[in-house]
Amino acid sequence: MVSPLRKVFVRRPTTVGRFVEDAQWREPDRELMVAQHDEFVALLRSTGSEVFVGDAIDGLVDAVYTHDPAVMTPFGAVMLQMRKPIRASEPDAMAHDFDRLGVPVLGSLQGDAASDGGDKVWLDARTLVVGRSYRTNAAAIEQFRELLTPHGVRVVSVDLPHYLGPEAVLHLMSVISPIAHDLAVVYEPLAPVALLQLLDERGIARITVDEDEMLTQGANILAIAPGEVVLAAGNDKVHAKLVAAGVTVHEFAGTEVAVKGDGGPTCLTQPLWRSS
Fold first, then answer.
1. Considering only CA atoms, which of 195, 118, 130 is closest in space to residue 156?
2. Is 2 left (phi over 0), alpha (psi -120 to 50) or beta?
3. 216 — phi, psi (to 5°)?
4. CA 239 → CA 9, 37, 173, 226, 244, distances in Å?
5. What is the C-alpha separation between 241 and 245, in angstroms, rounded?
6. Residue 276 confidence (pLDDT) above 80
7. DSSP string, the chain
8. Residues 44-98: pLDDT tens digits?
9. Which of 62, 160, 186, 241 is deepest in the core (most CB within 10 A)?
10. Which residues contact 146 (CB under 8 A, 6 or more apart)?
11. The overall pTM is greater than 0.70
């Protein structure tokens, strides 16, 4: 998740839909939201990533968060089943985009397994940490193991807290973002103890985030290379900590497209290829 980002898929935000009633956003300025997404795409391209842009899907306002319908692995994508009712059709839509782009698919969740891509963190190419949460259940974690263990991948499960309840979004990536092979940004009060212990065992240092900036996506940061990241603007405290740690920080205005939908720059992207 920190190797150089070479190819990435994003989706244009729709301006048609019930943002508050159906998707639990705070009502955005819809035209500004589109402009902010355009700025984000331009930033990714300026840093050397090839960006593939999918069409907006009217009515599916969460579909702009392309990280969630699939988990990308070194062996192909795992297509998910999503528990938030309004997002149920997003994996099929993304599968069509992947087919168009020639992205291989390793497998799909089956039966009652449910998961969002935001509940996973790769610590390295052979260690996938999955948060068991209101969006990701034990059946999904077991199916991840069935798909990935034959490829030598260890799947580690950690439990996320109740926090604001089943209707609120709390993904594993709401509280941790890998920044380099030995550095991560973490909101410790909601981070699973088992995850913090695993980071310590791996020698992965932590930059901590305060609650006010966790709420403005200060803990959801996109690494585009080891020690080089994209951050939603306005998170000045974590920005200062990153710079002090020698990290190169690119900012984009995300008040509408990121903060009001509770999705940061990682949520807005589905990495297709990172070079080793």
1. 130
2. alpha
3. -110, 30
4. 25, 21, 18, 16, 9
5. 6
6. no
7. --SPEEEEEEEPPPS-S-TTTTT-PPPP-HHHHHHHHHHHHHHHHHTT-EEEEEPP-TT-GGGG-TTSSEEEEBTEEEE---SSGGGTTHHHHHHHHHHHHT--EEEE--TT----GGGEEEEETTEEEEEESSSS-HHHHHHHHHHHGGGTPEEEEEEPP-TT-TTS---GGGTEEEEETTEEEE-GGGS-HHHHHHHHHHT-EEEE--HHHHTTTTT--EEEETTEEEEETT-HHHHHHHHHTT-EEEEE--TTTTGGGT--TTTT-EEEEE--
8. 999 999 999 999 999 999 999 999 999 999 999 999 999 999 999 999 999 999 9
9. 62
10. none
11. yes
- Give 172's contacts (C-beta < 8 A, 6+ positions apart): 118, 119, 120, 121, 129, 130, 131, 133, 158, 160, 192, 195
Contact 231, 218 (CB under 8 A): yes
Structure tokens at 112: 């009652």
Tokens representing 178 are 């890998």
pLDDT in tens, 145-187: 999 999 999 999 999 999 888 888 889 999 999 999 999 999 9
